[in-house]
Design brief:
The structure is a homodimer.
Chain A: E1 4-11, E2 15-17, H1 42-47, H2 58-66, E3 69-74, H3 76-80, E4 105-109, E5 117-118, E6 124-128, H4 132-142, E7 147-150, H5 154-162, E8 168-174, E9 182-183, E10 195-203, E11 206-213
Parallel strand pairs in A: 1-7, 1-8, 3-4, 3-7, 4-6
Antiparallel strand pairs in A: 2-9, 5-6, 8-11, 10-11
Chain lengths: 214, 214
């Protein structure tokens, strides 16, 4: 069975983005601080077209993220927030560029129908208007036996968590406070639906917690 | 310099107590779940007058809590919440019993003056009405060169954290969700005042994070 996997960086006080998120600043004010552990890594720099960088205990954790994911589900904010219906005369193709880093089918949760968007490098964005379960089912069919990645944002993650549809969750806990912003678990309730802590990796500036069904 | 040390168990979604806290249920509904990792431990059972129990990676962490603390500061809820002025005709001596487990001077933050309360076993409760810094200064004088423990509850902890007065914070992170209740970091802001992650101990059902001034 193809699993639904999810990863996110979170502050010690539970925030995954700072306040005042916008198209210009999708992580919100200060939100970059929960990601600071990843930027020095050679594997991060290489996959973003940069040279140099270091390897540490986070390297194999980041490598695993990229493995065995055959399709991605994401919220419309993660695709590139749009305020309403898609406009045929002014198409908005998200903020991932012409050659998005997915290289596999991506299913975008939205209230507004739109034809699929075929990008370079094997990424196709398919827009799903009939809910999170339909999007997950479509992604599983498209994943070719591999896992489905839940690409975020936090709102989409909360919906899948609350519905008990997440099979594995990697939280990269950054020892910082954001103080305000968007919390991962707001409104999710008190039930992890069988997800239990199965692995902890300690690395410079971060603790990687893996919760999975046992 | 005597350090102000603080330890607390917290859920993955940042709660240190569940909703609907009361004198009968000081941890709130479901709040016990963040403490479940400690109950099986032999060291916990022994210090609570019980036999049996196990040792695991949490054992040395719990042992350290008890070491080198010469005085304790706590909020009035931790002493045993009282709704208003102390009543001489109906004294309330907290919920720690006749022989409290501190065995050293304890300074209770309160708005209502009261004479010190001398208990069995070396514990004296002194009631401090002139604020957190005065209580800390008194505790440091009383600690005899040892550290000062911040006994909680969450409200007192938040005040010391926001003021930048905490020198070491041990968070025992339980991989559960409470969904609602009292959050440790609400209103603390986005500044840890130099506290950085210096140690992580992974144990059954819990990850112990230590933040301290570097």
């Amino acid at each position: 069975m193809s699993r639904l996997r999810f990863r996110i960086s979170m502050s010690l006080d539970g925030y995954v983005a700072g306040p005042n998120q916008s198209v210009e600043n999708p992580l919100g004010v200060g939100g970059m601080r929960v990601h600071e552990w990843v930027f020095p890594l050679e594997i991060f720099r290489r996959t973003h077209g940069l040279e140099g960088g270091v390897a540490n205990e986070s390297t194999p954790v980041v490598e695993e993220w990229l493995e065995s994911v055959g399709a991605t589900v994401m919220g419309r904010n993660m695709f590139g927030g749009h305020p309403g219906p898609w406009k045929a005369e002014q198409p908005w193709n998200g903020w991932w560029g012409d050659d998005p880093p997915f290289h596999h089918p991506v299913f975008v949760l939205t209230h507004y129908p739109r034809e699929p968007l075929v990008m370079k490098g094997g990424t196709t964005f398919t827009f799903v208007t009939d809910g999170i379960e339909a999007a997950l089912a479509a992604a599983r069919r498209a994943a070719g036996g591999k896992d489905v990645g839940l690409g975020g944002g936090a709102s989409a993650a909360r919906q899948y968590l609350a519905a008990g549809l997440v099979d594995q969750m990697d939280i990269s806990l950054a020892p910082v406070l954001l103080g305000s912003g968007e919390r991962l678990f707001d409104g999710v309730g008190d039930d992890l639906h069988g997800l239990a802590l199965v692995r902890t990796v300690v690395a410079p500036g971060v603790v990687h917690l893996r919760l999975a069904r046992s």
